[in-house]
Design brief:
Arc Repressor Mutant, subunit A, 44% helix, 8 strands, D-Maltodextrin-Binding Protein, domain 2, 10 helices, 6-stranded mixed β-sheet, single chain
Length: 300
């Protein structure tokens, strides 16, 4: 379809000339000479096979064909200008973040308001997903994912190590007279008995390989949902301590031991190398890295 259209510069010249009804003024608007305007008009007339302007002494007017074409082109160029302005506005003022559900629910979402206060010029949109971002096709500015930090074509910043330790409700611990040694955990059900962190942590605690007591095995798919089940007394959950400071402080969960495992995977902030200088990405990166440092230095 596009191969049947005249060149865009030629159409732009005709639109300006039709609006001004003056080749000289059209040339001034477009930064070209009157002769260049006349040349483009002649090319367009040859392409259409009809005259577009008629002269009345020193004045010009549109022919019937020109009168039909001019408003359609003016509307088309207005639509292009509006779309371009909207695109610039979206790129400049809206920050689109894709982050893992647990990290979003237990940390990021609770702090984004502070970023908005510091940067009211940006509107923030948060999408929670476990799917890797395709920055070439998804409308996303930055992603927060779990991995090794090796992402070709992306800038990556380490935010937080994926640590884990068992947590449970005080009521569940009290049901066996308290949890005093790691072995006591084996008297209680685990929310997700298929979690690989269970065996890894038990080994760190010096316990021999063993099957944990079968619990509901809910398979909830997100750590924060496992935590919700643990808070309700449904069993022991292997959780990242940094994400549950508030729950530990107010007593909804207890962390009976200081033994903490560290997963090979970590949480990373990632974005395309080509977009690293965008103001909204720089502002969010600097703020988030500072928040991550605060989180790691906090104690319950």
């Amino acid at each position: 379809m596009s191969e049947n259209l005249p060149p865009l510069p030629t159409l732009r010249v005709f639109e300006a000339a039709a609006r001004h009804l003056n080749f000289t003024r059209a040339g001034e608007e477009l930064g070209m000479t009157q002769a260049a305007v006349s040349y483009h008009i002649k090319l367009l007339e040859e392409r259409i096979g009809a005259t577009l302007f008629v002269r009345h002494g020193r004045k010009i007017d549109l022919t019937d064909v020109g009168s039909t074409l001019a408003p359609a082109l003016s509307g088309a160029f207005r639509s292009i200008a509006n779309a371009f302005d909207a695109a610039k506005s979206n790129v400049g003022s809206t920050l689109l973040i894709s982050a893992l559900p647990t990290l979003s629910a237990q940390w990021l979402a609770r702090r984004l308001g502070a970023f908005q206060v510091l940067h009211p010029e940006f509107a923030v949109r948060l999408d929670t997903s476990t799917t890797l971002v395709d920055f070439d096709n998804d409308n996303i500015d930055v992603g927060i994912r779990g991995g090794m930090g090796d992402y070709p074509g992306l800038v990556s910043h380490l935010l937080l190590r994926a640590e884990y330790t068992p947590m449970l409700s005080p009521a569940l611990a009290a049901s066996i007279g308290g949890v005093k040694t790691p072995a006591d955990l084996l008297k209680l059900p685990f929310v997700n008995d298929g979690d690989t962190w269970n065996a890894q942590w038990l080994e760190l605690a010096g316990l021999p390989p063993t099957e944990v007591l079968r619990g509901p095995n809910l398979g909830l798919g997100s750590q924060y949902l496992d935590a919700a089940a643990a808070i309700s007394g449904g069993g022991i959950a292997m959780l990242t301590p940094a994400f549950y400071r508030e729950e530990l402080r107010d007593g909804r969960l207890i962390q009976p031991f200081d033994i903490v495992g560290v997963d090979a995977l970590s949480y990373w902030l990632v974005y395309p190398h080509a977009r690293r200088t965008l103001p909204k990405i720089r502002a969010f990166r600097d703020w988030l890295l500072a928040e991550a440092e605060i989180l790691q230095n906090q104690t319950v």
